[in-house]
Amino acid sequence: MSLCDLTAAEISRRLRAGDLSAREVMQAHLDRIAGRNPRLNAIVTLDGERAMTAAARADEARARGAAVGPLHGLPVAHKDLALTRGMRTTFGSPLFRDFVPDDDSLIVERLRAAGAIAVGKTNTPEFGAGSQTFNPVFGATLNPYDEAKTCGGSSGGAAVALAAGMLPIADGSDMGGSLRNPASFCSVVGMRPSPGVVPSWPVADAWSTLSVDGPMARTVGDVALMLAAIAGPDPRSPISSTATLGRTPLERDVRGARIAWWTSLGGAPVDPRVRRVVNEQRRVFDALGCRVEDAEPDFTDFDAVFKTVRALAFLTGVAPRLGARRGEVKETIRWEIDRGERLTPADIARALTKRTELFHRMRDFMTRYEFFVLPTTQVPPFDVTQPYPTAIDGVKMHTYIDWMQSCYFISIVSNPAISVPCGFTDDGLPVGLQIVGRHQDDWALLQMAHAFEVARGQLRIRN
Fold first, then answer.
1. Which of 15, 196, 206, 216 lies in disulfide reach of 190, CB 3.0 to 4.6 Å?
2. How many Å apart are CA 354 and CA 359, to the nearest integer?
3. Among the options 178, 208, 241, 411, which is catalytic?
4. Concatenated DSSP letters for 435-457?
5. Three-state DSSP class for residue 324
6. What is the C-alpha separation between 139 and 369, in angstroms, rounded?
7. Burial of 31 (0-12, 13-18, 19+ CB in 10 A)
8. What is the mean pLDDT of residues 221-241?
């Protein structure tokens, strides 16, 4: 097995034991990037020289007995929406093609402080709008399982870099599914933490809980390793959580855990290929001794409330960056901002009060069940030349985000959620299973996802 195909946890163990140097690890990954990235287009800004210099410093620090962080020597690339001091950050937009920030985003700060070494930036749709990774600056990122298909998004470059072994860990962000959707499409693991667990800074609306930063990796254990390193409060974020993660083992006996198994997603259509692969996983939870029941929350109003709050987020977070150049970005971004500007105070008040009602509806549901299981995405990976699905199982999609309801229904109520690989369609396209936990019960969610991952491997399920 190539060094690049090892888990982050195993690489970390060998680095700490002195069996590997950070320079060896970095060079192996830079070689893998050189071999695979030109075709897949996952990493769009690369600074291998700076990464190797940082790796040398990491080796020197360990040699003199200095304390090293939990991610010591692990290569990482940052999503091209995250500010990186001294490294180009384009937001996937021609308006910022040559922008080099003077500051780091908080998640970039934390990854560096934990010992991870940045190699560059991963591709994203323009301003993260939509779950299909393409933009006019760098073009499209291709799915490593079928290069004619999309990798999803908006953390699509990160997911592809992981799936192709170019990185052991990667960061991303998630408003309507952007950590989970590409994880599903690329057969990796992506987690949307509870808002505030990984604080965000800088942001236009510091009180918003709609978009969160979080971890991606190839295994649940690696996601847990990364999340424990980047979680924790920060005075720059008024919603940051004081929760500490990783103090209890990831292994847990989940016998007796009550699980709600999705039924209809409130009428949202699901491609039969996805439905089959996801529903076949129910036997894994049965084998674990979980108590699985057909049940799901009442999803009435989830769609309308999410779309209103999302439009507000574009109005506050994206519109000010565009200024008078709004006409130079893609149509879907203009559509979001225009919707935000048309909202009346009464529209906003209704959405915010209704969102509170939805939160409590979900909270009540999750008092009866510890976890809720549903598909991560409603479709398998689609053609990379198609901006977004226009129909699912014969049902027309009216907007560019309608096909993402299985993810954004969870975003709007702020529960933690994780996408875990669960198999493939008959034509070899990855499918992810989404597990939702109770609000701010992120570690328990990781424990269940880990139990599923291990049990599925032991059962040797193949789809």
1. 216
2. 9
3. 178
4. EE--TT-HHHHHHHHHHHHHHHH
5. helix
6. 43
7. middle
8. 97
In angstroms, the CA 235 to CA 221 distance is 28
Report how far residue 83's alpha carbon sits from residue 89's, in angstroms, rounded to the nearest whole number: 6
pLDDT digit string (tens) for 3-16? Answer: 999 999 999 999 99
Average pLDDT over all residues of the chain: 97
- pLDDT tens digits for range 288-338: 999 999 999 999 999 999 999 999 999 999 999 999 999 999 999 999 999
The total of other beta-carbon atoms located within 10 Å of residue 153's CB is 29
End-to-end, the C-alpha distance of the chain in Å comes to 24
187: left (phi over 0), alpha (psi -120 to 50) or beta: left
**Length of the chain, in residues:** 463
pLDDT at residue 462, as a whole number? 40
CA 119/CA 106 separation, integer angstroms? 17
Q: How far, in Å, CA of 49 to CA of 29, rounded? A: 13
- 3 and 25 Cβ atoms separated by less than 8 Å: yes
Cβ atoms of residues 259 and 295 within 8 Å: no
What pLDDT score was predicted for residue 244?
79
Which token pair is 433? 């299973």
The answer to whether 178 is a known catalytic residue is yes
Q: Provide the CATH topology of domain 3-459.
A: Amidase signature (AS) enzymes (3.90.1300)
Whether the Cβ atoms of residue 64 and residue 300 lie closer than 8 Å to each other = no
Active-site residue, from 105, 154, 187, 419: 154
pLDDT at 463 over 70: no
Which residues, other chains included, contact 200 with Cβ-Cβ below 8 Å and sequence gap of 6+? Answer: 105, 106, 107, 173, 211, 212, 213, 237
Q: What is the pLDDT of residue 459?
A: 64
Closest CA to 45 of 10, 108, 88, 1: 88
Is 79 designated active site? yes
Rounded to two decimals, the pTM is 0.97
- Residue 384, phi then psi, degrees to nearest 5: -65, -20
Q: What is the DSSP string of 365-408?
A: HHHH-SEEEEES-SS---BTT-SS-SEETTEEP-STTGGGHHHH
Q: Is residue 51 a contact partner of residue 117, using CB atoms and an 8 Å limit?
A: yes
Beta strands in 286-367 (DSSP E): 291-294
Q: Where are the domains of the chain?
A: 3-459
